[in-house]
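Two proteins follow. First one:
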Amino acid sequence: YSRAMKEADIDMICLDNSDWERKLSYYYENHEDRRLSALKGLNYVNKNYSDKTKLEKWDKLFHTLGLNIS
């Protein structure tokens, strides 16, 4: 979770209950930051876990094995 948050450039890492309360309150009150964080998360997921990205990773794996399946 913390790795994904860092890679997506989203400031939502919480280490304890106090962090959770502070972050939830902040994002509840700050619509624009909440929206921007959601967009960053969506971009991260689309970049790293889309069907196209997964297929490209499989193609690379097969290529390293000497198989050309494209």
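Second one, unrelated to the first:
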Amino acid sequence: AREGEVVTHNSIYAAMYYDRASGDDLPDPKIIAVLVSGMRGALRPLGVTITSHFGHGYSIHMPKGDPDAG
């Protein structure tokens, strides 16, 4: 996905757990929200933000470079 593009919750879940053979082996889908929350905290000091789009998914936004910094 490109910066700012909304990625669905289901596509994140599928990408993370595609290699699980059994549905019984899969974690609760709510784990995505937990992991995103942790990522927000880890990336915030770098100026990266993750936006929730309720009912759709998430998008990530990188800090803009300083146009005055050569």
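SUMMARY FIELD: Helices lie at 9-16, 31-43. The first helix runs from residue 9 to 16.
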